[in-house]
Structure prediction request, 197 residues.
Amino acid sequence: MTAYHRSQVDRGALRRYRLERVRRELRRRDFGGVLLLDPINIRYACDVANMQVWALHNKCRFVYVATDGPVVLFDYGCAKHLSQGYALIDEVRTATPHTYFTNGGRHGEHIQAFAREIADLVRRHGGGNQRLAVDKLDPLGTHALEREGVALTDGEELMEWARAIKNADEIVAMKEAIAACEAGIEAMWRALQPGMT
Prediction:
C-alpha cells in the first residue's frame, strides 16, 4: 500500500528526459518554442502539478518552453512554492488568467496583457523564430497573440509525439502509479459497508 512512498524513479533524470523530448520535437519542426495550457502537457514538460482538474476548465496556469532558452512557468501567485526545487524551471511568474469567468468585463484587457507577455518571451528567446506551438488556446487568446506578431502552430501534435516514447524511469513511474491506485481501491473496497454514503 505504500509503494508510492518508496519510489525507484530518478525524478531529476525523468524531468530532464521529458523536457528534452519536447525540445527535440520543437527543433524537428523548426518552432521557436511552445506554450502549454493543457494540465497534462504542463505536467509532462515541467512536472509541476497544481489544481489539475480546475485548470482543465480555467486557463489559469501555463508554461512557456523555449526551444533553446528558458522554461517559464505561469502559476497562481500564491502557488509559486509548488515549483521550488525544480531545477529545469528558470522562472516562475504569476499567471494572467484569460477567461471571462476570471476577468468579467476586463476580459479583453487581460487577454491583451497575456498576449504581450508571451509575445515578449517569443521575441527575446525564440532566436528570431516567431513560430510558437500552442496546445489549447481559445480564439480570443489566439487572435491576441497573432496581433502581437506571433505565428501560432499546432502544439497538440508536437506533444503527442514528445510523449510517445517512454524511457525506463517512465515505465517504473507508471507501474508505481498503478500500484498506488490499486492499493487505494483495495482500501476503499475493504472499508465499504452496506448503507454507507
Q: What stands out?
A: DSSP finds eight helices and six strands in the chain. The radius of gyration is 19 Å. The CA atoms of residues 35 and 64 lie 5 Å apart. The first helix runs from residue 11 to 29.
